[in-house]
Amino acid sequence: xxxxxxxxxxxxxxxxxxxxxxxxxxxxxxxxxxxxxxxxxxxxxxxxxxxxxxxxxxxxxxxxxxxxxxxxxxxxxxxxxxxxxxxxxxxxxxxxxxxxxxxxxxxxxxxxxxxxxxxxxxxxxxxxxxxxxxxxxxxxxxxxxxxxxx
Length: 150
Fold this sequence. Notes:
This protein is an alpha+beta fold and 150 residues long. The protein contains 7 helices and 4 strands. A hairpin with a 2-residue loop joins strand 1 (27-38) and strand 2 (41-50).
């Protein structure tokens, strides 16, 4: 939330340090995958790319999401996990997701008409608190899109 709000800390936070280290080492975070949910705990991988090599690392979901926000990379989750955890996607969201999967170069818009920047930030905080990472990723993308347009 601090990163999304643009709050500058006097020293780098752990997630900032990790992203900086990746950059210096010539690697980048390309995606996060939430691959399992068991007993209310979500399990995630982060995927790094260095040269032509893809590296998968097991990570706590909270850390993976924090890194994805900083790296501006997609956060993916299996639909079966959404259903299992009662985190249903609307048919519109499902269609957008399928369109994006079919067209890797397309940027997905998550327009939330009438939402203020403050409302979006509060919604993002709540989605993260609720561990609704799909929604958090959508809100993050909307905030980033609005920031680019300003």
